[in-house]
Amino acid sequence: MKTTALIFLLGFSILAVGCGPSKAEREAAERERQRLELEEKTRREERAAHEAISEMNKKNFGKLTPEERAAREAERDRYVQQLREEREKREAEHEASKAAETK
Predict the structure, then answer these.
(1) Which pTM was predicted?
(2) Do 29 and 21 meet the contact criterion of CB atoms below 8 Å apart?
(3) pLDDT confidence of residue 78
(4) Phi first, then psi: what are they for 19, rounded to 5°?
(5) What is the mean predicted confidence (pLDDT) over 73-78?
(6) Exposed, middle or buried, 88 (CB in 10 Å: 0-12/13-18/19+)?
(7) CA-CA distance, 66 to 63, in Å (whole number)?
(8) Residue 87 CA to chain centroid, in angstroms?
């Protein structure tokens, strides 16, 4: 009786071990998991790129609030003033070098 039970348990354990996924099935499942992860990563990157483009379009082509318009105009005016000052400085240096050459 004990040997019959032992043989039965041994046969059942061999059967149970053999019922697991084969190496090919495990590799196929791993490849599928990697493919799905890559698809998800690509989807996230596409979404982030789309959001960045949308934000850029909104920033560049959207209607500005009066505060934003005033801030942009002030920045532009500061830049123009800086360019004028740099030009005047170069002209003054040029005049000074011309005056030094003529003496």
Answers:
(1) 0.42
(2) yes
(3) 96
(4) -85, -10
(5) 95
(6) exposed
(7) 9
(8) 41
The C-alpha atoms of residue 35 and residue 27 are separated, in whole angstroms, by 12
DSSP per position, 50-83: HHHHHHHHHHHHSPPPHHHHHHHHHHHHHHHHHH
Question: Could you tell me the two tokens for 37?
Answer: 């992860």
Express each pLDDT in 6-21 by its tens digit: 677 777 666 656 666 7
Distance in angstroms (rounded) separating the CA atoms of residues 27 and 33: 10
Distance CA 15, CA 7 (A): 12
Cα distance between residue 80 and residue 102, in whole Å: 33
Position 20 scores a pLDDT of: 67
Q: Which residues contact 72 (CB under 8 A, 6 or more apart)?
A: 64
pLDDT at residue 23 tops 80: yes
> What letter represents residue 32's amino acid?
E
Supply the pLDDT for residue 68: 86
Q: Cα(first)–Cα(last) distance of the chain, in Å?
A: 127
